[in-house]
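User: Some background: our group keeps a shared notebook of sequences we're curious about, and every so often someone picks one and asks for a predicted structure to add to the entry. Today it's my turn. The entry only has the sequence so far, pasted here. Could you supply the structure so I can complete it?
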Amino acid sequence: MVDIVEYAKRGSIEVIVGPMYAGKSEELIRRVNRAKIADLKVLVFKPSIDNRYCTNNITSHNGKKMECLAVEEVDKIMEAVNEGDFEVLAIDEVQFFGEGIIEVCERAADMGKRVIVSGLDMDFRGEPFNITPHLMAIAEYVTKLTAICKVCKLPATRTQRLVNAKPARYSDPIIMVGAKESYEARCRECHQVVR
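Assistant: Of course. Here's the predicted structure to add to the notebook entry:
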């Protein structure tokens, strides 16, 4: 495996994916903290729709926090990228942004910047989530994390949505922000979607 730092010398995209409770935000925070220790200038963003714990912080489920700018549209991120006054661009919950985030990430990497994004790779149905698979395809480095299945305690790669403690219906809306009250990590066998 090539060291991520080597990619960062010429611009790169790193994608951190997995189900809920796999530690994606925690890993993003860890990588950004390492960059900050090295005195690199970092821009950190998240979508404003993610207001589960705090509006102006990336917050992991275990309580680790990092200050960020919450934005509704990718235009604000692109403005910051075009100013060019940074070395690392970090974006949490990338799946909540539209296709414009792909252009933002490619623009920053083409400028020689290190781009680190994290998000869900699959939706609650177990299908590819929005733009995340595209970002994985164009990335130099992809880290796929697993959680622990809430049912059988084996590695979990999927996110189970629960409605009134029962599996969600396939026809339910894809985007619904929530935490332990609405979601569990599940393995392929234990993951259920009502059709």
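Suggested note for the entry: The first strand starts at residue 12 and ends at 17. The chain has a mean pLDDT of 89.
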